[in-house]
Amino acid sequence: MTHTASLDSVVRLADYKPYPFSIPSISLDFRIEERLVQLTSSLQVEPLADSQPLILRGVDLELLSIQLDGKVLDGADFVLDGSLLRIPAPPLQPFTLTTVCRIDPHANTSLEGLYASGGMLTTQCEAEGFRRIAFHPDRPDVLSRYRVRIEADRQRFPVLLSNGNALSQGPLSGDPSRHEAIWDDPYLKPSYLFALVAGDLRELRDHFVTRSGREVALRLHVEPGDEPYTSHAMDSLKRSMAWDEQVYGLEYDLDEFNTVAVRHFNMGAMENKSLNIFNSKLVLADAETATDGELERIESVVAHEYFHNWSGNRITCRDWFQLSLKEGLTVFRDQCFTADLHSAGLKRIEDASMLRNTQFREDAGPTAHPVKPDAYQAIDNFYTTTIYEKGAELIRMLRTLLGEERFMAGMRLYFQRHDGEAATTDDFVAAILEGASADRDELGFDPEQFKRWYHQAGTPTVQIHRAWNASTGELTLRFRQSTPPTPGQPEKQPLVIPLLWALLGPNGEPGEERLLVLDQDEETLVLEGLSPSARPPALSLFRRFSAPVHWQAVQDVDELFLLFAHDDDPFARWDAGQQLWRTLLLARASGTRDSDLEQRMLEALRGLLAIEGESDPAVLATLLAFPGGAELEALQKEADPPALFQAACGLRECLGRVLAPLLHQRLEALAPQLSQAWPLGQGERQLTAVIWSWLAAAGDGAVWAQALAAVNGPSMTLARAALRALLPIDCSEREMALQCFYDRWQERPVILDGWFALEASTPRTDGLARVEALLAHPRFDPMAPNAVRAVLGGLAGNPLVFHAANGSGYRFMAAQIIQVDQRNAITASRMAKVFSRWRSYAPERQALVKQALDQLAAAELSTNTREVVALMQQG
């Protein structure tokens, strides 16, 4: 018999109850045939309560037989109803339940459970994919030891992988055409961490010696031909293992660690115990095939998935409402890893910019939700920047409030206390605070009030009013915090907000950094004994981005330029510049250029660009970068993406034209360092990209030619920078550059996705027709989420085409989402969020987006996508 999934009802945190059975061990026997897979699953079940039915979940499984302690059950002994297998009266003592099912991985386009990717079979079980493999509770608080046997054709599937350590591998006696592998994972884990891979893969081998002297075998598996692009990921893994030992004292716990690169994958990567499965884009890379940013991201994601071995695997989530317990903590850990290996200041700026342009946007829209939601329909919809990045910010705030030493004492207690458990965010906060209070020092804040961050959605705003007594040197600062209403949460309570701040002297002299803990609706701070002067000292606020908040402080242009030039905190310095850039771009977008401010910015830039100016090219590139479009849209009374795009193009043209001599001088100075291997030369290439974009916008033919030449050069960073610089310009060099890039990389799908994205985001008059052609392109793979995201994401990032005045871009996107939803609900539901800010547009544009949302709502949609669409219609 075959069954398919039915629509799930709303799941609520308040309804959580422990599963009434434990399953201490599981045996899985996979027999892989020509197309189908037969799985024999044996669960050792122990009742924890009397007279409870055993309820298991399964999706798209053909149930062949079911036995309880060896006895075949008939129709009177169990009920199979939709996605539920129910045994009404199981034994009251421990028993073994064995099911035999047939799976068709080639028919599974959801990329959840067991599915085919090319000639490979692979799995993705987080969050609820294991039910597509075997009948099981499929909830994270059921922890089991797994033993897995895999049998397959030796030629088609020479590599057979699963979790843990390999106990044996070899041919089947009596059938030399087939072989088997037996894997044992000695650590208890939830079903979402199960993994299996079978295929014709090539292997890169290395090893790592732990601090206790154990040698761990490291193996990275890729499709044939991809072997040359694996060393960066392998080196990143070894750096991650060493860092986790040095910083957290956490050692890897098995004899081997396997990584597999998969083309068809919904996520970036998955931390399955000892068998990490990665989207190929986040494994296959070197300087010629990946940009500097991509190399750093690969290093970060490899670290993230490895760090999950403890913050996610050894300690997992009790339920999916606790998702940030593992994801927020592990994002925090991978951010610290990157900061330690590279630049802490620049990494903090990168994280803050990302938060402002993605998570803040999410907080302000109809899909806003807390870090710890209280209900969901489809858990896949909660793999969001709120859960991940905002969750990481909550942990960072704890570190700021407690100090590094006390925070790390709490982390040690957390890993010690909850090892081998399914925990909650409350467990985490309690362990951190208890460990930090071992010396009985006062915490300095209310823990219960701090935990409101987990339950309240929305981005708080802190208003700062300043009063200055020029004759006495007394500075009065008044703070007011508020959080706007979000769906389902009209009323908000005050939060614990750590504010790192300092005063700068009249010539930019840095003062002492201080921590102020805001925990009331309104608070006042009075500083006496400052040097009397006509102007108050400059305020450096929320240094190191000490809290994920908006803030409003009346700071005039003189103060902002002082901070932009002299602040010793990299984030605060960058933020002052961002405030200036925002003012300039918003003025241009409204049709009222601020000529005086533009002139002052030009003077500041002349000082920074001069050879004797800012010496660090990475810092300079960061200071010259414009704010993101999403951040700017949020500041407009009626968001106008096309106008903001034109404003940015116009400002770049102005800067490139007026500053051309200095820009060319910088380019000449940067040139000798451009060929250095990553991470060296990264800042020089980053600054070159900014300068190219300004000069290209100004019509500099020499730079157009230079950019065209870079597309065929040895650096992917410079090639992509060249394409981005040419993209807004209707010139022959742009078309030649795009064609050259395609000709060079058409055989490499991971790289060609970048070309699809660039083509889709090019502002052409026939842009929508070009996107349609891309979707029909022979190299486009509609089953690969990366390819879908490249084209449709490129369209969404093309303001003149997606936001066309006739609504054609919106209608086209809705139609495509409906099609994608039929085969991959996760990708479709995430893509649907491109409409999340529609109520911030002018009425005419709102009406056009509403038509697209109605178009979506009228279609037959998955639970995932329907939930997102319904939220946006309500919002």
Summary of the model, kept short:
The chain has about 900 residues and is an alpha+beta fold. The protein has 28 helices and 31 strands.
Describe the fold and architecture:
It is a single chain. 40% of the residues lie in helices and 21% in strands. It has a domain of 200 residues: Immunoglobulin-like (Sandwich). It is of the alpha+beta class.
Chart the SSEs and their pairings:
Blueprint: E1 11-12, E2 21-32, E3 37-47, E4 54-57, E5 62-68, E6 71-72, E7 79-81, E8 84-87, E9 95-103, E10 113-117, E11 120-124, E12 144-153, E13 159-162, E14 165-172, E15 175-189, E16 196-199, E17 202-209, E18 215-222, H1 231-248, E19 256-262, E20 269-270, E21 275-279, H2 292-307, E22 316-317, H3 323-341, H4 344-363, E23 375-376, H5 385-402, H6 404-418, E24 422-423, H7 425-436, H8 447-450, H9 452-455, E25 461-469, E26 474-482, E27 497-504, E28 514-518, E29 522-527, E30 538-540, E31 550-553, H10 557-566, H11 570-589, H12 595-609, H13 617-624, H14 629-635, H15 641-658, H16 660-670, H17 682-697, H18 701-710, H19 716-726, H20 732-745, H21 749-761, H22 767-775, H23 785-796, H24 799-802, H25 808-823, H26 825-831, H27 843-857, H28 863-874
Parallel strand pairs: 2-12, 18-19, 19-21, 22-24, 25-31
Antiparallel strand pairs: 1-23, 2-3, 3-9, 4-8, 5-6, 5-9, 7-8, 10-11, 11-16, 12-15, 13-16, 14-15, 17-18, 20-21, 25-26, 26-29, 27-28, 27-30
Helix pairs in contact: 1-2, 2-3, 3-4, 3-5, 4-5, 4-14, 5-6, 6-7, 10-11, 11-13, 11-15, 13-17, 15-17, 16-17, 17-19, 18-19, 18-20, 19-20, 20-21, 21-22, 21-23, 22-23, 23-25, 25-26, 25-27, 26-28, 27-28
